[in-house]
Design a protein that fits this description.
This protein is an alpha+beta fold. The chain is built from 8 helices and 5 strands; from the N terminus they run ααααααααβββββ.
Length: about 230
């Protein structure tokens, strides 16, 4: 859990709060570790939690019950692959050098901001790029000068179970259980806790490595301890 508090949970809390209609996200109690800076702790613990029972039975409005996939099989398969790639690349935008001087320049410098903007435009729908870039920068600033935060080179979205994929024309909804895996600067790897994710995707007219798909929205809720992440 130390990796969670030292990485993207603060950014996730900011992201989730930025979306209309997102009412809650559960955060593990270990996020209250005494060595966490006050600003980070306040941002995390101020988020309302979802009742674990509601998460497990799908009764909370954020998540639908377990269901069969909707759409042509080949399109569903494509969207699954694309969602994994897009979300992993999205989290890779938060990669920061371990050297504090280099990290500071990457976060606040013109070159770093331009790099993140270009990369974000490749994974996020155009009308949300500016907001996402601003949110991401706010989260990264909390780690500016934080020598206890291990930098990473990239991130990977690991799906442990698929909940439902719906593809309707140029829009898609992906519901899955999974976690973010980080490839650290020191050669090690570490994982965030497993969460339930709902990702909304939209497709434009210019096919690319993501077949034209982009992320448009994400919602998350933690999988409570002792609760299975499989359908049933």
């Amino acid at each position: 859990m130390g990796e969670l508090k030292n990485r993207r949970v603060f950014i996730v809390a900011l992201m989730l709060g930025a979306f209309t209609g997102i009412t809650a996200v559960a955060v593990n109690a270990h996020s209250n570790d005494a060595n966490m800076p006050e600003a980070k702790r306040n941002a995390i613990t101020s988020v309302t939690t979802i009742d674990p029972v509601e998460i497990n039975n799908g009764s909370h409005s954020t998540f639908s019950p377990w269901a069969s996939d909707v759409g042509p099989a080949e399109q569903v398969a494509q969207v699954k692959d694309v969602a994994v790639a897009l979300f992993g690349d999205y989290y890779s935008l938060g990669a920061m050098p371990q050297d504090m001087a280099a990290r500071h320049e990457y976060i606040v410098g013109a070159a770093g901001k331009a790099k993140r903007a270009a990369e974000l435009a490749r994974v996020w729908a155009a009308d949300g790029v500016a907001d996402e870039l601003n949110t991401d920068e706010k989260g990264m600033l909390t780690f500016d000068g934080d020598t206890t935060s291990v930098g990473y080179t990239r991130a990977v979205f690991v799906v442990t179970s698929w909940r439902n994929v719906t593809v309707q024309g140029n829009t898609a909804s992906v519901r899955a259980v999974g976690y973010i895996k980080y490839l650290n600067n020191d050669g090690s790897t570490s994982n965030d806790p497993t969460w339930q994710w709902q990702l909304e995707l939209v497709r434009g007219d210019s096919p690319d490595n993501y077949h034209g798909w982009r992320l448009a929205k994400r919602i998350a809720a933690e999988v409570p301890e002792g609760v299975s992440d499989t359908a049933g």
